[in-house]
Amino acid sequence: MSAILQRFHQVANDALVKISAHCLPGAKIALVIYTPGKPEEDIILKDQGLDDNEVVSSLRRRGLSIDGDNAYKHDLCDAIVGALAMGAQNNNSPPPDHWGQRFWDIGREERAACEELVAALKLTRENLRACQATIHLCGGFDPAYVNDAQAAMKVADAALAKATR
């Protein structure tokens, strides 16, 4: 650490000690200094026992928006999307009691619901095909029904092809 940076840390620490003498009992102090676009220059000084989650909660209470753009939120959202995808694949379950389990479960449940719908659509499509075969063999049915049923089977085939890739 350079002498200038070391001196800065000492002065800032001394100032925080003086400020803390005037705070309510149990209050914690954090000092964050950042240079936009230069995260390598960030300086964070904080009390012993400071809870980082409480700092974020304090900032939220004072107007920090979830809509802001920052790397932490991008990483969090990427983790959520990953948990949803892993759940849908029934793969790589989070450790017990991990916060991502909730999203993994959602992915798993959505995939199970999709598989159930695919099975129902396959069954319905097969029954429609059997009806079409019977109509074709017996003759005498309204051609509009046959045409509509053929169109419905094409829609079902397209949906099944997309769902089972």
Automatic annotation (TrEMBL):
Protein name: Uncharacterized protein
